[in-house]
Amino acid sequence: MRVRNRPAVLRTRYYTINSDKEAYYYSLIVCHVPFRNESELLFENETTEDCFIRRQRDLRPLQGNVSAEQFNHAELIIQQAVAHATALNAARETDVGNAPMLCVGEQIINDDDNFCEDMEERSVMSDECFLGSIRGLNIQQKDLFQKVTTAIENDLHSQESQLLLFITGGAGSGKSFLLKLIVEHIKRCYAPTVDILLKPNFVEVGSLTGVAARQIFGKTLHSIFMLPIEKKNTMTYKKITGQRLENERRKWRYINWLIIDEISMVSYENLRIIHLRLQEYKNNDKLFGGVNILVFGDIFQLPPVKGHWCFVQPPWFSAEVNLWRGGQFVAAVFFL
């Protein structure tokens, strides 16, 4: 017997009107209609659907031409709109000018253990946790958060502007903390723009290794961009076509942000393939397909296993645009 560190979550079977009609209506009745004896809920020979229609006024005032599923959908839309407003208002309140200044040598470290780690990959952070995390940002983190918010607002207003940033700092400076907070912020800001029934994704998060990707609830760059395997120090890029390309373009239809962690391990050769893949996915000839790019990492940590540093363009690519300098990744943000 051991002490539970997380609160227990009651799990019940989920029914739909198509999979099990009787069980679906009965679950609604049992959950939302007060009763002392379960056998008294239904009349004799009465179906659960008839009982639900008869007692729907006990659940909530419903219009005759609107189903409970439509109400649930409407509630989700309202929740998204509230989360959207919460995110933008919280970002506007992060006024760097009013933030307390740091003394020389002082360091603010955001501990990942306090960052709601119990959320799953695509789950939504509570407003309390989200707002508390924003209030815990230091001056430089707030400045970066504002830049991301400005880019989001420009995108939502159809203003063509691309944000390409390199965020660096030593161990314990809060890079992973800020990365996860930005991902949540992006989801909240874009959620009301697309019907939730489409299950859209607005940001892709990746890292070169599986361990690093798991830490940020992301995927490996090889799985996202189909990076080729290096053979004899060469890396051949092949375009994707047909149904695979169609599937990727459908997947990336609403994705306007890419976040890469541990950028020091990504070679320039891999960065170039990511650039070309994004042009394919978005059907856009702009740098990185016009997608906003945030790269996190410490250049003084692990170098690429093979290839050149991400900021060093090989001589044989000199005729192409320099992805690092052309993308203004040199405008790095250093955390205290």
From TrEMBL:
<keyword id="KW-0378">Hydrolase</keyword>
<dbReference type="GO" id="GO:0006281">
    <property type="term" value="P:DNA repair"/>
</dbReference>
<dbReference type="GO" id="GO:0005524">
    <property type="term" value="F:ATP binding"/>
</dbReference>
<keyword id="KW-0227">DNA damage</keyword>
<protein>
    <recommendedName>
        <fullName>ATP-dependent DNA helicase</fullName>
        <ecNumber>5.6.2.3</ecNumber>
    </recommendedName>
</protein>
<dbReference type="InterPro" id="IPR051055">
    <property type="entry name" value="PIF1_helicase"/>
</dbReference>
<feature type="domain" description="DNA helicase Pif1-like DEAD-box helicase">
    <location>
        <begin position="137"/>
        <end position="306"/>
    </location>
</feature>
<keyword id="KW-0067">ATP-binding</keyword>
<keyword id="KW-0233">DNA recombination</keyword>
<keyword id="KW-0234">DNA repair</keyword>
<keyword id="KW-0547">Nucleotide-binding</keyword>
<dbReference type="GO" id="GO:0000723">
    <property type="term" value="P:telomere maintenance"/>
</dbReference>
<dbReference type="GO" id="GO:0016787">
    <property type="term" value="F:hydrolase activity"/>
</dbReference>
<keyword id="KW-0347">Helicase</keyword>
<dbReference type="GO" id="GO:0043139">
    <property type="term" value="F:5'-3' DNA helicase activity"/>
</dbReference>
<dbReference type="InterPro" id="IPR010285">
    <property type="entry name" value="DNA_helicase_pif1-like_DEAD"/>
</dbReference>
<dbReference type="InterPro" id="IPR027417">
    <property type="entry name" value="P-loop_NTPase"/>
</dbReference>
<comment type="similarity">
    <text>Belongs to the helicase family.</text>
</comment>
<dbReference type="Pfam" id="PF05970">
    <property type="entry name" value="PIF1"/>
</dbReference>
<dbReference type="GO" id="GO:0006310">
    <property type="term" value="P:DNA recombination"/>
</dbReference>
